[in-house]
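Hi support team,

I'm opening this ticket because the web form for multi-chain structure prediction keeps timing out on my end. I have pasted the exact lines I submitted so you can reproduce it. The total is 1116 residues across two entries, so I didn't expect it to be a heavy job. Is there a limit I'm missing, or should I split the entries? Thanks in advance, R.K.
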Amino acid sequence: MTTIIRVNMTSLEINREPVPRNMEKLGGRALIGEILNQEVNASCHPLGKNNRLIFAPGLLGGTAVPCSGRISIGAKSPLTRGFKEANSGGTLGHKLGRLGIKAIIIEGRPAKGHHYVLRLTKNGTALDEAGDLGQLGNYDVTKRLFDQYGNNIATASIGPAGEMLLCASTVAISDQEGRPSRHAARGGLGAVMGSKGIKAVVADDKGCGVVKPKNPQAFKAVLKEFSNYLKVDPQIRSRSRHGTAEGIWHAVDAGWLPTRNFSSGHFEEVKKIDADAIEKLTKERSGYMTACMPGCVIKCTHVLNDRDKNYLTSSLEYETLAMLGSNLGIGNLDTICLLDRMCDDIGIDTIETGGTLGILTETDFFQFGDGEKALDLLNEIRNGTTLGRVLGQGVEVTGRVFGIDRIPAIKGQGMPAYDPRALKTMGITLSTSALGADHTAGWMVKGETYEEQINHSMERQIAFALMDTLGMCLFTRIMLFDNLDYMTGFVNGVHGWDLIEADLLELGKDILKKERRFNENAGIGFHANQIPDFFRNEACPPTGNIFDVPEEMLWRSS
Amino acid sequence: MTTIIRVNMTSLEINREPVPRNMEKLGGRALIGEILNQEVNASCHPLGKNNRLIFAPGLLGGTAVPCSGRISIGAKSPLTRGFKEANSGGTLGHKLGRLGIKAIIIEGRPAKGHHYVLRLTKNGTALDEAGDLGQLGNYDVTKRLFDQYGNNIATASIGPAGEMLLCASTVAISDQEGRPSRHAARGGLGAVMGSKGIKAVVADDKGCGVVKPKNPQAFKAVLKEFSNYLKVDPQIRSRSRHGTAEGIWHAVDAGWLPTRNFSSGHFEEVKKIDADAIEKLTKERSGYMTACMPGCVIKCTHVLNDRDKNYLTSSLEYETLAMLGSNLGIGNLDTICLLDRMCDDIGIDTIETGGTLGILTETDFFQFGDGEKALDLLNEIRNGTTLGRVLGQGVEVTGRVFGIDRIPAIKGQGMPAYDPRALKTMGITLSTSALGADHTAGWMVKGETYEEQINHSMERQIAFALMDTLGMCLFTRIMLFDNLDYMTGFVNGVHGWDLIEADLLELGKDILKKERRFNENAGIGFHANQIPDFFRNEACPPTGNIFDVPEEMLWRSS
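Hello R.K., no limit was hit. The queue was backed up. Here is the completed structure from your submission:
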């Protein structure tokens, strides 16, 4: 990966730049941290011309490593007002890798009302007028882009939410079947893309082969071992059958399933929305399991059809099932599928939206279990009504507007589907990550004492940051949960480097440090490592736990 | 002042507590800083049961010192999410001082739908059911309270905005004529009062005399000199005639009058809204000048009548004229009077509201100069429509909801009526104060170099914090703009202390330090000392200036 593409949306100029020396060994999330700290004044308005939107494949993007094609997207977040990297599966990461693109940096802002498609091919990069794509949902946009640019493309697009600059908006990434079912969902990056006047990014890697390893021998050895592992690991096998929906079982067992606006950890209708229920529905309607990116052998995605056996939605993750299901008191899988499809189409984060509708039950606008009303409210967002615009800002702003003080959000970002009272270790990661409440910042359960839990959270945050830097899917597990031999093996094999584990650990620490530094420069101090006070004051049934990790320990851990 | 009244709104219990040793020499703002840091976890939700609302008269409250009866109100701010003290004239500060009340601390939260009047007399303190006062505007509430409790009372009340927990809501304080024209306006303290279920505080000091000085000789000597000064100082004389409306002249001369959403420092219709215009309107309609508190010889307040010569509004300050006038392109004094009256009645901050309607011109909801529409929009707030609730959250949330990135706010609080590009020294105070953009944190114009300007701002912030601790009106000037002899003279005379200037300076620094510490504990780091980036990027006509004080200097100055 030899090139940085810089797109100035004020002048509409595109430049290809060589990769600076200090960025050579960075990719994905690490590269975004470096660029944001170097180029973006942390005090800028996140939707103003001085913010940058960055796309960066991981260090293994475009290679033959299985599950290595995740795309990192980053900017100053309009939701958290701090550092944000969100990554996604789908096919974009690999295609950018194969095109030799290390990063796309989008800066400036076009005149109002102008929207573009940024098109990348082997032969060059161009901005096409987006024409009549404006206000279309992601499904229509993606279909039109595939019709127009051919089937070899990958897309990143925003729905009406991103165009309306709503802070819960996502960037949708096309999957292997050309559907916008994958999302860099958290932190409102769709709004940053909207502010830059980019409706979609289209990448076509025609004529580009797979990235060839610089040290083929070493690479092949690791690849073989890794591929074998992926095929036999029992937990991966389980994921291949159940998808992330299996998380519902773990959540119910341990009492951390967000239910009715985080008022309980158990949902009495849970069997209607768990992995068995999804498997049944999938089969009944001729759905199937699939992989979001080429070369993935895990295939964790349910493709779900409607009653007429036409495609309805896919990538219905645990987070979505919990936040749009149990957290809203909705035990109807059909409704959850529709809500998921609408969120993907409008381009809004299912986690943030589930949290938002959850607190809205404290008003007259919504009641637990009312699926029809939930769909109506998503339409309010789609249509940009004032109420819709409020909801599209996510949990915290919705809470402020309606005078609600029980707000499940950290650093401005709605909490994912792990009640931290029953899963305290996760609460530590959620409160201490510079990214705001984000389960992919370092999922973990271990640790007896607070001290152990905090140390373990920091270790996990480092390992996860490295995975996001390599572009690796977290579900490959062994890279994360064992030593770092696979990481060093692949990175050295691909790039011909000679990194050792200590180098990667150093890099991981540096990634977190840079993210915290950006937050600090944005005015977000380390005391923002907090958990909403109701988690400390209200016991959560059925475990009866409260979150009791001392505040001081959360502060210290940055 | 010997007693702290603690009101627990969960249990509805009231306790009288002795003043702890470390609070004896504190009053007003300093006392609030001490109590908030001691008692309130900075990470709490500002509208939850763990926040405290504090009323504290100054160290000179209830004495015969002219202009010493300001009341400080404080809490964790729902607007800035950090430390907030806002103070107000009117008659409450003196009455609390005469009742011997050092502070009222309101904690906890009652069951939903319950609202109370907190009544304080020489004989005791009680919570009366607020009955049918709910949802009434401040003018009706205050009238009913005076009807019910007699003419010797002072009131603090909230309008519908405070009850609806809107973050731009104020606490209204009754003036000498029993009207709610005075407001502790900034930072959303009305919402904190609303969250505590307190519709009004009523203080009757019947049977209490003026606070007697412990050292009468010394006190009388200072009092005589001070009173003579107030009578002859030419600038005070000017204030007595023109009110703060004279600020319009200074602003126009120097090009810092916020005009059309901070797009210019000059308003071509300025002569329709300046001090001459107000003087003319006041006279035509049989209005007059008056003082907000007993013992004030400045009398800076215009009482403005409607066409039928019935009372319309008073305390139409420079800030209101600019933010609801020039900043909205409204050159009609009648309209501004109506807007001011409505803000006072609904209980919302005229500064925050003017800034909010200013940015709303970037949407289809409002256009510059449309006074009728501005009044309609205030009615939306009064009626609690979704749009009204958004606007009632102030500049920053309104900007987020409507995707506006040119936001005149610092630390979440809307900017007052001094364009920092033409008055950079003020920009320093606005960006560095822990209170958010607040002109009363340290109004100043001096300094040639950045270094001088920053040092001068820090000196001013210390002096202003001391004035807020004594309960003194800033318009007495000499206390601020000369040495601190008057402050030490009065404080020592009243309390029999022997403080020297250095003690007060130490106290002043400590006040600011505690406020910053609270912010830091709330997660607001010193890098939040920022100015919105458009002030750095857009030149302001007519001066053509940008705000160019280096960011690093703003950070350093905390």
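A quick check on our side: The mean pLDDT of chain A is 96. Let us know if the file doesn't open in your viewer.
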